[in-house]
Each structure stands twice: as structure tokens, then as C-alpha cells.
Design goal:
- It is built from seven helices and 19 strands.
- It has 306 residues and is α/β, with parallel strands linked by helices.
- It folds into two domains: 180 residues, FAD/NAD(P)-binding domain; 116 residues, FAD/NAD(P)-binding domain, CATH 3.50.50.60.
- The longest helix has 22 residues.
- It is elongated and about 65 Å long.
- It binds NADPH dihydro-nicotinamide-adenine-dinucleotide phosphate.
- NADPH dihydro-nicotinamide-adenine-dinucleotide phosphate binds next to α5.
């Protein structure tokens, strides 16, 4: 019987691993498909305290992993397909058919950003195409950018970018935004924000320096047009990775795990940390903070059982 299984290996999972391993809980992290999480999709990260020059996202993630390993965290590279409750413990089923039995679980499986799924997007991922304006907006200071999406995230990120960038174009695929009235109204009033409705990106254009523009198509009349921009920010939603606990742990209407102030879930012995329970902030530093909190709470729980 294991004491603690941490499901997912982003910053929240690694932080939980560091704390749990130092508390001698001998934790296992099940890596999952997107090993390292969202930070592996970015280049330089400048908003993590302690790195005044910034740090490469992959380097940061690898350092966190090495730190968790140094204190004794074990890793399994596989996907969790189901978690079941059994009397006083849990059964964690892996895709390869293996089963781990454990007293406590921290779900830190993250939320995957939605992508447009067009060919040119892959080419410029991390070279002008980003899913996080707060993380990468600073690199586009004084430049023209595009933000795709019509929800609250698109509005919030457009507002943020409007203070840094020369011009922000919001690309909305329908004839109206899904965002709340107040958020929409706020961006409509900002001078350097231009909203283009009924439009979608057909192709992201660029060269070896990165993105240089986009080709747009109007959904109503099929007319195409090019806009010169250096950054393309996608704010078309996130999909929390919570399928494996559906029916066991309470989820909100978008599939995010519902947590209490101490990161506990409705199931005693299961906590959640990081983006999987956070549709709002989605930052590395907040993910790390919640990973720490969840591990400290799990430690108390496990020790009370001994
Ligand atoms: P949403 O799911 O609310 O919105 C996603 C937007 O992206 C929609 O406009 C959708 O268009 C569009 N979209 C989806 N797929 C594509 C695609 N392939 N191409 C182009 N456009 C696409 O996600 P958000 O991240 O905005 O918000 C998630 C939740 O978090 C919401 O409940 C929101 O209210 C909340 N939130 C709250 C904030 C706050 O209160 N400060 C800030 C940020 C988020 P369509 O409408 O046509 O489907």
C-alpha cells in the first residue's frame, strides 16, 4: 500500500512531490501524457520569482522534477485511466493495466489549452503563438498582436495586452462574444483594441524570425484578408484533465475539480492542486503554491492514519 500518489507532473505535481518526499511519504508521481505540463510549451518564463533574467520553461520544469527526485519521489510514466475508492484507500488504475493502491491522492493533472489545430500553428508554437498572454505578453511590447476567442479569458487577456502592445485585434468566430457583459464592454472601450467578428484564422504566416502575420477568413462571405502581427494569443478555453475521476470527485460544469480552501475535494483523502482546479489564475506560481498546500494537508491526513 502506497501512502501518496500524485497524478500529473506539472509544477503543482512536482511541488507536491518535493514537499511529500521531504516529509518521508515516499510519493509516486504518475507523469501523464503531457509530462511537465503547460510550461513545456513556452520559451522563456519571466514571472517566476527568483529568476531575474527569466528561465526557459523546459529548464524550469526539469529542475523541479530533479528536485522532487532528489528527495526520493518516484516516477511512473503512464496515464491514469480510473480512480476508485475502496474502504479506507484508493485504487489507481493505469493505462498499461497496472494498479496502485494508496491511502491518499493529489490530483494535479492540469488543464490543456485548446489549440486551433491548423498546420501553421504547430510551426510557430512558442515562436509567436502562445496560449498565455500573462506569461508571454511582455515579449510583444509595442507590437501588434492578435488574440483569438470571445470568452472572458480573451477579454481579460486583451485588456492586459492593450497596456503593453501597440494594437490588439480580437478575433471572434461568431457575430457576438460569449464573454460577460462587463468584460465585453470594458474591451470595447479601449482605443487600441479592434474586434473582428465572424472571423477565423486560416493560416499563421511567418519566417525564421517567428510570426509576421495571419491570414483571416470571414465566415459569412469567405473573403480573406491578411493582418501584420508578431504575436498570436489563443484564448479559446482549457480542457481540465479529469476524466479519470468523473463520478467520484465533484467537478464544476466545465470539468474542473471543485476544491475547498485547503484544496480538499468532496472525497476524504483526495486533494487537487494546480490548473485542474483553477480556471481563473492558471499561473506556475499559483500552481506551485497549491501543490505545496495539498501536500501539507495530505501529510496531516496520512500521519493521522498511522
Ligand atoms: P470559454 O469557453 O468561456 O470561451 C472560449 C471562447 O473561445 C469562446 O468564445 C469560443 O467561441 C471560442 N473558441 C473555442 N474554440 C474555438 C476555435 N477553435 N476557434 C475560434 N474560437 C474558438 O473559455 P474562457 O477561457 O474564456 O473561460 C473559461 C471560464 O473561466 C468561463 O466560465 C469564464 O467565465 C471564466 N473566466 C472568468 C474570468 C473572470 O471572471 N475574471 C476570467 C477568465 C475566465 P464560441 O463562443 O463561438 O463557442
Amino acid at each position: 500500500m502506497e501512502e501518496l500518489v500524485i497524478i500529473g507532473s506539472g509544477i503543482s505535481g512536482y511541488t507536491a512531490g518535493i514537499y511529500a518526499a521531504r516529509a518521508k511519504l515516499n510519493p509516486i508521481i504518475v507523469d501523464g501524457l503531457e509530462k511537465g505540463g503547460q510550461l513545456t510549451l513556452t520559451t522563456i518564463v519571466e514571472n517566476i520569482p527568483g529568476f531575474p533574467q527569466g528561465i526557459d520553461g523546459n529548464e524550469f520544469v526539469n529542475n523541479c522534477r530533479a528536485q522532487a527526485e532528489k528527495f526520493g519521489t518516484r516516477f511512473i510514466t503512464d496515464n491514469v485511466v480510473k480512480v476508485e475508492k475502496e474502504d479506507n484507500h484508493f485504487k489507481v488504475h493505469l493505462a498499461n493495466g497496472d494498479l496502485i493502491e494508496t491511502i491518499a491522492i493529489i490530483i494535479s493533472s492540469g488543464a490543456s489549452a485548446r489549440w486551433l489545430n491548423i498546420e501553421s500553428e504547430k510551426e510557430f508554437k512558442g515562436k509567436g503563438v502562445s496560449t498565455c498572454a500573462t506569461c508571454d505578453g511582455f515579449f510583444y511590447k509595442g507590437k501588434d498582436v492578435i488574440i483569438v476567442g470571445g470568452g472572458d479569458s480573451a477579454c481579460e487577456e486583451a485588456h492586459y495586452l492593450s497596456k503593453l502592445c501597440n494594437k490588439v485585434n480580437i478575433i471572434v468566430r461568431k457575430d457576438k462574444m460569449r464573454a460577460s457583459h462587463i468584460m465585453r464592454e470594458r474591451v470595447e472601450k479601449i482605443n487600441n483594441i479592434n474586434i473582428l467578428y465572424n472571423s477565423k484564422i486560416e493560416e499563421i504566416l511567418g519566417d525564421n524570425t517567428g510570426v509576421t502575420g495571419v491570414k483571416l477568413i470571414n465566415n459569412q462571405n469567405n473573403e480573406t484578408s491578411n493582418i501584420d502581427v508578431h504575436g498570436v494569443f489563443l484564448a479559446i478555453g482549457h480542457v481540465p484533465n479529469t476524466k479519470f475521476v468523473e463520478g467520484l470527485v465533484d467537478l464544476d460544469e466545465h470539468g474542473f475539480v471543485k476544491t475547498n480552501r485547503d484544496l480538499s475535494t468532496n472525497v476524504k483523502g483526495i486533494w487537487a492542486a494546480g490548473d485542474v482546479q483553477d480556471p481563473k489564475y492558471k499561473q506556475a506560481i499559483t500552481a506551485a503554491g497549491t501543490g505545496c498546500q495539498a501536500a501539507l494537508e495530505a501529510q496531516k491526513y496520512i500521519e493521522s492514519k498511522e
